Structure formats: structure tokens, C-alpha cells
């Protein structure tokens, strides 16, 4: 049996600002933001308090890029330093995602990991799928935010 939740939070981990999307399932109310790691911790602590007071169920959905097999090779004409830099940035993002999982466990939040798909959503496609005018939601112009919406809009 698939458990239905009252609310979902999608998180697309990133070193600087993670995309965060909150969806209230009954009203389809969507809130989107880009948060630093410690802002995200504060946000999730507030979610725990609100959940406990309202008795609503919530699931955190985290993009888990570290679960995808990656194989970095040099592109013809590319310096090895460029490949190393790319690998370093990807590894840092993966570590942030793993720490967010640890954060959810610490806060006793139900979470689910979703491997990233190869199909990216842009703003117009996201609006078409969700039927929500994203121009009225502040901060949604970041790709991390659109990726967070995609995680919870399945």
C-alpha cells in the first residue's frame, strides 16, 4: 500500500543554495525557496514543530545523485584539471545530499531518495505540468528550485 502524505518537501541538494519546494497536497499550495545548508536545517526544524502541532503527515523527497553510477573521463581536448574540478564539485554536492539525509534522520523526518533523471524541466515545462504560474512564486528562477518541484510533483 502506498502511503499518502498531507505535505511533501522536495530538496535538490547544492553546495551553495539547495532548492526546496513545499507542496500541500489538498490545496496544491506550492512554496519554493533556495536555502543554504543551515537555513535548511532551521526550516526543517520548523517543519517538525508544525507537523507535531498539526498532526499532519509529511515526507521529504531528496534528489540522490550519489546513487547514480558516474564515470568521469577526459573529453578530447579537455585538461585533466577541468575534469578534476568537475568531479570535485559533483562530490561536494553529493556530500551535501548525504548530510541532508542525516539531518532528516536526526529530526526524525520521513524521507525518500530519488535518483536524478536525465530529463531536466525548465520553467515553462514545469508550469505546463503543474498548471501553476511560477512567475508569482519568488525565487523559483533557480534550476535547483525547479528540480525540487519536479521531485514532489510525481
Poorly predicted runs of 5 or more residues: none
Report the span from N to C terminus.
Answer: 17 Å
Number of domains as seen in the coordinates: 1
**Name of the CATH architecture:** 2-Layer Sandwich
Question: What strand line-up does the widest sheet have?
Answer: 3-2-1-4-5
Global structural class = alpha/beta
Give helix and strand order, one letter per element, not per position.
EEEHEHEHH
Oligomeric description of these chains: single chain
* Rg estimate, integer Å: 16 Å
Task: Supply the number of helical segments.
Answer: 4
* CATH fold-level label: Nucleotidyltransferase, domain 5
**CA-based shape:** globular
Structure description:
The chain has 154 residues and is of the alpha/beta class. It has one domain: Nucleotidyltransferase, domain 5 (2-Layer Sandwich). It is built from four helices and five strands. It has a five-stranded mixed sheet with strand order 3-2-1-4-5. The two termini are 17 Å apart.
Comma- or semicolon-separated keywords:
single chain, 154 residues, alpha/beta, Nucleotidyltransferase, domain 5, five-stranded mixed sheet, 4 helices, 5 strands, 19% strand, globular
How would you summarize this macromolecular structure in one to three sentences?
The chain is an alpha/beta fold and 154 residues long. The chain contains four helices and five strands, in the order βββαβαβαα.
SSE topology sketch:
Blueprint: E1 7-12, E2 18-24, E3 29-35, H1 37-54, E4 58-63, H2 80-106, E5 111-114, H3 123-130, H4 143-152
Parallel strand pairs: 1-4, 4-5
Antiparallel strand pairs: 1-2, 2-3
Amino acid at each position: 500500500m502506498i502511503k499518502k502524505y498531507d505535505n511533501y518537501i522536495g530538496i535538490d541538494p547544492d553546495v551553495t543554495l539547495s532548492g526546496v519546494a513545499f507542496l500541500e497536497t489538498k490545496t496544491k499550495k506550492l512554496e519554493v525557496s533556495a536555502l543554504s545548508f543551515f537555513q535548511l536545517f532551521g526550516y526543517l526544524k520548523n517543519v517538525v514543530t508544525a507537523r507535531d502541532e498539526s498532526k499532519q503527515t509529511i515526507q521529504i523527497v531528496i534528489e540522490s545523485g550519489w546513487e547514480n553510477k558516474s564515470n568521469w573521463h577526459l573529453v578530447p581536448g579537455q585538461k585533466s584539471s577541468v575534469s578534476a574540478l568537475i568531479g570535485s564539485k559533483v562530490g561536494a554536492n553529493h556530500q551535501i545530499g548525504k548530510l541532508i539525509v542525516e539531518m532528516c534522520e536526526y529530526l526524525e523526518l520521513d524521507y525518500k531518495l530519488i535518483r536524478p533523471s536525465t530529463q531536466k524541466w525548465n520553467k515553462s515545462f514545469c508550469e505546463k505540468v503543474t498548471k501553476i504560474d511560477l512567475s508569482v512564486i519568488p525565487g523559483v528562477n533557480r534550476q535547483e528550485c525547479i528540480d525540487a518541484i519536479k521531485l514532489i510533483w510525481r
